[in-house]
Design brief:
five-stranded mixed beta barrel, about 30% helix, about 25% strand, alpha/beta, binds hypoxanthine
């Protein structure tokens, strides 16, 4: 048994999320947040542009959060005040499904954001392009997803409608900032291996445009919690078999670093409109 309360199968994950939200209120001095933002590979700089950081706390001081497993994933929670007076909670500590800690830990940050008051959940990631038009460095709005993890964050007979999961209202708002923003269907694979070329072909045939290892499970939990979801992928590479060279994590990080200034400005402007 670890010291993470979510590893106790008898724990109520929503109660753990409420405890985490209480920690955030105490540590940041901000009682409620309006918007939550999870920053994936390539999106980290957006936090500096959204507004003024009023508090930053190590995620490990907040109930139920784990140490980040990966370089490029910053393990802090930040409270930001936007110029229009909105409070944004920036989550720089994502737990991926492939880490093997279970779905409760994967979606804990989303449930915590909801418990902290956030009505909008913005999820960002780095992903591979299946659609040939989506070349590295491009940000793409997520219009829908295909969950290929064979898992769900919902427990018991919890039937949640996902028809407008990635809210059209928010996608339309994002396009008022950049009318050229494309959108596509995100396929979440379990990872941590990258997909085979055959899996990428399958994803394309099924209607997928983008492949990655996060976001879909978090989006479902956000909708269960009653939040509106906005999703963005940064295309960091062409998916396996679409690009001729092998994939590497280094390539993903490099593409993220190169695109970061541009997409961070974009994201900060979109958050300003929410
Ligand atoms: N596949 C899955 N996850 C990813 C990829 C990819 O090609 N690129 C960045 N994250």
């Amino acid at each position: 048994m670890t010291d993470n309360p979510l590893d106790d199968p008898t724990a109520d994950p929503f109660q753990v999320a409420r405890a985490a939200a209480d920690d955030i209120a105490r540590l940041t001095g901000v009682e409620r947040h309006d918007i939550a933002l999870t920053l994936g590979s390539g999106w980290g700089k957006a936090a500096d542009l959204v507004g003024q950081t009023t508090a930053e706390v190590p995620a490990t001081e907040v109930t139920g959060f784990s140490r980040p497993a990966l370089e490029g994933h910053v393990g802090t929670l930040r409270s930001i005040l936007t110029p229009s007076g909105r409070r944004v909670l920036v989550i720089g500590a994502r737990t991926h499904f492939y880490e093997g800690h279970g779905v409760r830990r994967v979606v804990h940050s989303v449930r915590t954001a909801a418990a902290a008051g956030a009505a909008i959940m913005v999820l960002t990631n780095g992903a591979g392009g299946v659609n040939r038009a989506y070349t590295p460095g491009r940000p793409v709005l997520i219009s829908d997803h295909i969950n290929l993890t064979a898992a769900s964050p919902l427990e018991g007979a919890t039937f949640v409608d996902l028809t407008d999961l990635y809210a059209k209202r928010l996608r339309d708002l994002a396009r008022t900032v950049d009318p050229d923003l494309d959108e596509g269907v995100y396929c979440q694979f379990r990872g941590p291996h990258y997909e085979t070329p055959a899996e990428v072909r399958m994803a394309g045939i099924m209607g997928g445009d983008i492949v990655g290892m996060s976001t879909a499970l978090e989006a479902i939990a956000a909708r269960e919690a009653g939040m509106e979801v906005l999703g963005f992928s940064l295309i960091t590479n062409l998916a396996a078999g679409i690009q001729e060279t092998p994939l590497s994590h280094e390539e993903v990080l490099t593409a993220g670093r190169e695109a970061e200034p541009v997409i961070s400005r974009l994201l900060a402007r979109v958050v300003g409109e929410l």
